[in-house]
Amino acid sequence: MGSKSGLRHRKPQNDEQQPLLEVDTNGKDSKPTSHAAAPAPAATESRALGNLLLWVATLASFVTRFYAISFPSQVVFDEVHFGKFASYYLRRTFYFDVHPPLGRLLIAAAGWVIGYDGHFDFTNIGDDYIENKVPYIELRAWPALCGALVVPLVFEILRELRFSLQACFLGAMLVVLDNSLVAQSRLILLDSMLMLFMTLALYCWVKFSKQRHNAFSCAWWSWLAMTGISLGLVMGVKMVGLFTVATIGIAVLVELWYLLDYRRTSMAQFANHFFARAVCLIVVPIALYLTWFYIHFAVLTKTGPGDAFMSPNFQATLHGNKMSGRAELVVYGANVTLKHFDTGAFLHSHKDRYPLTYEDKRVSSQGQQVTGYPHNDTNNVWLVKPADPDQWATLLDAETPHVVVKHNSIVVLEHLNTKSHLLTHDVASPHTTTNQEFTTIPEDDWLKRLDETLFRVEIDGAADDEEPLKTLGVQFRLVHVKTGVAMHTFKKPLPSWAYGQQEINGNKKKDEKSNKWLVEEVVYPTKDQAVPIDTAGEGLKKPSFLKKFFELQGLMISHNAGLTKPHPYQSPPQNWPLVLTGISFWQDSVDKQIYLLPNPVAWWVTLALIGVYAMGWVFERVAERRGVPVNDPKTANQVHFSIGFLFIAWALHYFPFFLMGRSLFLHHYLPAAIIAFMVAGAMFDYVLTTMLPSLRKSATANIVAWIVTAACVAGIAAVFWYYAPLTYGTTGLTVDELKARKWLQTWNFQYSG
């Protein structure tokens, strides 16, 4: 143990049951962790050879990622999003996205270093970079660098787990020669950063686990802290970084369960282990995650396209946003425009009427249409009147101070252009038959149906009935007094008879969040006496960092789950390992294209090896149950912990996608694919040592193993080269050449002829 901790773990007595042990290179027993290391390579596989192979794989990784990175000099696929977000950062303009900010911050930082000012908006796929003077090569270089650095980490993870150098080299080269990983890493996208930080977290955890005999030493603390930092990095790029957190979390639970054994640690020692992991693997990642958002808010200080997603109080923190000014109070006799909080549609009416019958043969009231309209228009203006018509003359008296509309005030809304009054009644709305229709009635009929035009203003979060209604985003519900329904709208457009505008209806579930409205503008009636100063509106209270964080976090989660709109290149998770689908990234006007397609042979062989591992694990469990051990203890230890850890990591990065309802794409599988390649390398080592038992002792067997490894790498490289024209897009392919490469009919290559 480290001298600073003052702790010494008790060793089990000879008669105590031992856990499964591994044998170190010096022949001594050592305690396992959640994934114990496998035996060290033979002396013929020297450290020098390993380092040479590491450099070869790393160099090949850089060559494949940076080759022809300047092509095409146009916006490709999702560069329209992530390039645009980098420009927003550099212009300090607020925007909204469903991903955490770290990846986009790093792209923006790369742009800032090279002097890019963010002038380009990345509007459309195919927009020309050179014409718009965008330093796109330098911007693409950062993701390419991250993608290239994954390879040495994969090599080192397998080496630290003590697999053979053949397995390390094959696993690394599978990553180097995967067409989809190369294509995804060469563009201004987030995935290469996600994959780098995920691999770094796994590497740091493996290094930490190997310090188990030096608990609380400097190296032990360093690798534990680095694991926590890596988790904070991977979480900061995309929310699926939580899959990596879950992987490390399960490994931690296994370790803690092992340490809980009273024969190994006292409760004081266990508490120290627990709190060390809690601080480094929970507190540190959360602190870093909050830090990325703090920087995000600190940089994006100007009003921008993301304002509409945020609450009025949030918007008040942005320079140039109208919410940052002073509020105007709503008074009786004022002309107002009302805006729906969720959809941004204005309360609107016009002289056209509802049709006699709808498409489902229902009969309407044929009243004047009341709709939601997305643009400013004179038909959006409403006059605020009191519930008691006898008070109207007094309220308009030039000598009478303005009377402010407050929480629970009862009002009538008159449509200014048509001189008709808003009402709702027991008639089904056009789209939503369970909700009430909104319409208006003319001045002549108003007093006869006065009770149907009365609405109560319910201000959201009002402390009491003295809370005033005002502009700058004070949210309220307009509740019909007679029937209790709340005014509501939603995005679905009405038919052509309503010009495709939104339906306004009365929602019987009045407390739903989607019933909230805002006063967009207010124009006071002309009076000799102005609004009293003591009732002047105040500016919105600006939220704290944590309130802004939780608001944005909630919106990110809800909008991410709401990404269900069909896309021509989306695909279900079961298609990914089988390479049943790809994604068209870019195509020129002739015969060049970039198509996100994995190295099919590499993926199919990898999936087969994962299947062999899963079936072998089940077979071994059954055999052991019957008292027939399949593997010797050393090999069993390696299979159970080292390969098992990688298999669980792969499963946790893949199977959760089956539970998601949002649109999914092949690139969501790429982090899992990297781990799958490590499983494949580990299983390749298992096959080699099974077929060549003397692999680590015999030079001849070692040479045979290298020949097999070289043949495998050469085969994978040949397939990579065959599909390279679709990966880089630099070489045009004829229709016949494309058809020859279309091994599966589900691959949607773009044909120019």
From TrEMBL:
Pathway annotation: Protein modification; protein glycosylation
Subcellular compartments: Endoplasmic reticulum membrane
Region (Disordered): 1-42
UniProt entry keywords in alphabetical sequence: Endoplasmic reticulum, Glycosyltransferase, Membrane, Repeat, Transferase, Transmembrane, Transmembrane helix
Enzyme class at the top of the EC tree: transferase
A Gene Ontology term for the protein's cellular component: endoplasmic reticulum membrane
Family: Belongs to the glycosyltransferase 39 family.
Protein name per the record: Dolichyl-phosphate-mannose--protein mannosyltransferase
Lineage, highest ranks first: Eukaryota, Fungi, Fungi incertae sedis, Blastocladiomycota, Blastocladiomycetes
